[in-house]
Amino acid sequence: MRRPSTRFVMPSLAIAGLLLAMGRNVLADTLGDAVQGKLLYEAKCGGCHSVDSNRIGPMHRNVIGRVPGSVAGYDYSPALKKLGGVWTSARIDRWLQGPQKLAPGTKMFLTVAYFRDRADIIAYLVSVSSHSQ
């Protein structure tokens, strides 16, 4: 029996690793379903967030490419204000896996356990952001 070729696996993984290092979550970018993501966003995130207005949490329109803690009129925790950088799909994926791990002391505690749900939510957030990656 012949072994399957791995000739193309390593270059693909290297490219995926490079894109991830650049702030791109390759799997979320390519596998996410924005339509399903909107439904999940409304179900999981909508209790605290809105796309267009600040609520318990800040609004999310144009979150991709935005500096954390920078929405006017929202009172962020000190932990989020000092986070720095910008929101990318990869960073939002890490955030949704554990906000307290990324910014200990932040107001948010909700996590999204399943990769597919996170990918869909991120695809929706990309769709409502003018700075999409």
What this model shows, in words?
This protein is mainly alpha-helical. The protein has one domain: Cytochrome c-like domain (Cytochrome Bc1 Complex, Chain D, domain 2), CATH 1.10.760. Helix content is 46%, strand content 0%. The protein is built from 7 helices and no strands. The protein has helices spanning 9-21, 26-31, 34-45, 78-81, 89-97, 99-102, 115-127. The longest helix has 13 residues, at 9-21. The model has no long low-confidence stretch (mean pLDDT 85).
Which descriptors apply to this entry?
single chain; 133 residues; mainly alpha; Cytochrome Bc1 Complex, Chain D, domain 2; 46% helix; globular
Number of strands: 0
Mean pLDDT reading: 85
Q: Judging by the overall fold, what is the CATH architecture?
A: Orthogonal Bundle
Q: What summary fits the major beta sheet?
A: none
**What is the N-to-C succession of helices and strands?**
HHHHHHH
Topology, element by element:
Layout: H1 9-21, H2 26-31, H3 34-45, H4 78-81, H5 89-97, H6 99-102, H7 115-127
Helix pairs in contact: 3-7, 5-7
In short:
With 133 residues, the protein is mainly alpha-helical. It contains seven helices and no strands.
